Prior knowledge:
Elements: H1 4-13, H2 18-29, E1 32-33, H3 34-39, H4 45-55, E2 59-62, E3 65-68, H5 89-93, H6 98-110, H7 125-138, E4 145-149, H8 155-162, E5 167-172, H9 175-188, E6 192-196, E7 213-216, H10 222-235, E8 243-248, H11 255-267, E9 270-281, E10 291-299, H12 327-336, E11 348-349, E12 364-367, H13 375-382, E13 388-393, H14 402-412, E14 416-421, E15 429-436, H15 444-454, H16 460-471, H17 478-489, H18 504-517
Parallel strand pairs: 4-5, 4-7, 5-6, 7-8, 11-12, 12-13
Antiparallel strand pairs: 1-3, 2-3, 8-10, 9-10, 13-15, 14-15
Helix pairs in contact: 1-4, 6-7, 7-8, 10-11, 15-16, 15-18, 16-17
Amino acid sequence: xxxxxxxxxxxxxxxxxxxxxxxxxxxxxxxxxxxxxxxxxxxxxxxxxxxxxxxxxxxxxxxxxxxxxxxxxxxxxxxxxxxxxxxxxxxxxxxxxxxxxxxxxxxxxxxxxxxxxxxxxxxxxxxxxxxxxxxxxxxxxxxxxxxxxxxxxxxxxxxxxxxxxxxxxxxxxxxxxxxxxxxxxxxxxxxxxxxxxxxxxxxxxxxxxxxxxxxxxxxxxxxxxxxxxxxxxxxxxxxxxxxxxxxxxxxxxxxxxxxxxxxxxxxxxxxxxxxxxxxxxxxxxxxxxxxxxxxxxxxxxxxxxxxxxxxxxxxxxxxxxxxxxxxxxxxxxxxxxxxxxxxxxxxxxxxxxxxxxxxxxxxxxxxxxxxxxxxxxxxxxxxxxxxxxxxxxxxxxxxxxxxxxxxxxxxxxxxxxxxxxxxxxxxxxxxxxxxxxxxxxxxxxxxxxxxxxxxxxxxxxxxxxxxxxxxxxxxxxxxxxxxxxxxxxxxxxxxxxxxxxxxxxxxxxxxxxxxxxxx
Length: 519
């Protein structure tokens, strides 16, 4: 019989055939794309494709859509679920929050495009709202602080739409995302604060030990999950009372990958209070059924996070398999690094800006060949010497166009004069050469900005005040400087942060205010 391959496939799956039976029901009900056949029942793409192959000529196809041919649908009636599925209580709540769902759909439609190099896969709007409803129904959020470690799914906006009395902090490496969340939060009056960080190099001091709850959808490699979970524990104000909420998914065809991740989490001392299967759904990630589980983790201690490799993702130059630049590229970087004639060539450094970089050195050579976009600016801000060279991808957003080059130069122009050596030393790379700008060439406003850039790791309010005093050669007192800062930005929360931790759009808005306050 034509149905025998399907019967055999279901028998092979044994007790785990229910997902495939749901696929059969979908095919019998209507046309569906392959993406829907994967996401709705949370079945890996390869498994769905095996079922489609087994059905064979009994399928109708139209472009990328599939259905059981009406003439054969009755032959497969016994292969469906044959009963009611359990109702997801939080899924059922979605129908009572249609206004929030519409807003989330609109937000996702306009969110900056996902970056494959950062393993961005967009969660569905229903998932973002479901997360918010689950959090609000599980925890007493009013007056509490929720930290989102990465937020391309816009969970922060969804949570505040459900409970506007919660304070949310979003920490992300993607400056585009931080600007987008800032804009949306300001429009709606949500208490959301955004901070920039790459978790491989540490968390900003302002978010350490501050959160009641931490939510994250990390890269699904063991290295990525361990890093993000470790940073989440560092961010909890009280590990005994706090909870770490993680998304993670793996294919039922490769359980060993799931085991490696769970072992990494257990090494961090995390107890799994609950694992809610297929809680999160995605527009993509078909290899894992476009679904991921929700891990509810309780820390048993605060353990130090081991220094992370930069290779924690599954795609691109920062993937676990990435090999980095060749020796010739690094040699060219060193040769192009500007330095005094009496100084030896600098050794290539790895990325990182948790602290000022290169104190006491005459020049820096920094390998940023895996830079997803923000590393170059942060490295310039963290550079202690007045000279450096950086190796970046040739398609880096700050070097690939005149607009990008001018944008970067405008931010650091009071400290560095930049040269962009495209396709150097090869077609994949660019060397950015930064040479010092002499203080004597700057006016008072430029000097004040320069002082803030030089001390990018100090608390901004203090650094700005001292910069005004220094730039005026003492003509402005500390009290007058504080008054000028208050006139410029009031009691902005940014004054408590470090410049290096601010999202890029707020740095760009702030520097002209600093220069203007010195006039």
